[in-house]
Amino acid sequence: MTFFDHERLEVYQVARELNREIARLLDQVPRGFTDSKDNLGRGARSIPRNIAEGAGRWTLADKIHFYHIARGSAAECAAGLHELIDLHAISETQAAPARHLAARIVAMLINMIRSLESRDTRTMSRPPNPRDPRDPRDPRDPRDPRDPVTPVTP
User: Fold this and answer.
1) Is 144 helix (H, G, I), strand (E, B) or coil?
2) pLDDT tens per residue, the chain (154 residues)?
3) Considering 60, 65, 81, 97, which has the largest number of Cβ atoms within 10 A of its Cβ?
4) Of 13, 39, 37, 26, which Cα lies nearest the Cα of 104?
């Protein structure tokens, strides 16, 4: 059961999967790498939070802004994984699943951002107007039925 729009987004679910993978991986990192572990953990936790915040915003500019931040955090995670590899705290093999998830998230967010940037900005800049016959949105449903990143489920 979902209560929020972001829970329906595949990229949000993949970001949660990355969080779980990073947590599992960080448990394997030996002592002495506290700063690197903390930075990687914070970066991973930032991704789903920014996706959720973006999904909850009304304006396209706000949505895009938070999706860009999430994309940057996913790239930061990839760099953090390389840092732990370079410091010989983990192996390439150990990092590979998390790196693949981070790359997948970056690709998904880029597609979402491009899709939003190509949209007519008039549709999400304001709440639905029940008195405007030109407004295709249902005033009881804050999601735009034409929004590719917030699918309407039956």
Assistant:
1) coil
2) 778 999 999 999 999 999 999 999 999 999 999 999 999 999 999 999 999 999 999 899 999 999 999 999 999 999 999 999 999 999 999 999 999 999 999 999 999 999 999 986 555 555 556 666 665 655 555 555 555 555 545 4
3) 81
4) 13
Q: Which of 11, 12, 14, 44 is nearest to 26 (CA)?
A: 44
Between CA 56 and CA 143 the distance in angstroms is 10
Distance, CA of 33 to CA of 89 (rounded, Å): 8
- Tokens found for residue 81: 């994984």
What tokens were used for 146?
Answer: 């034409």
d(CA 19, CA 56) in angstroms, rounded, equals 21
- Residues contacting 106, CB < 8 A, separation 6+: 71, 74, 75, 78
In this structure, what token pair is assigned to residue 141? Answer: 């449903």
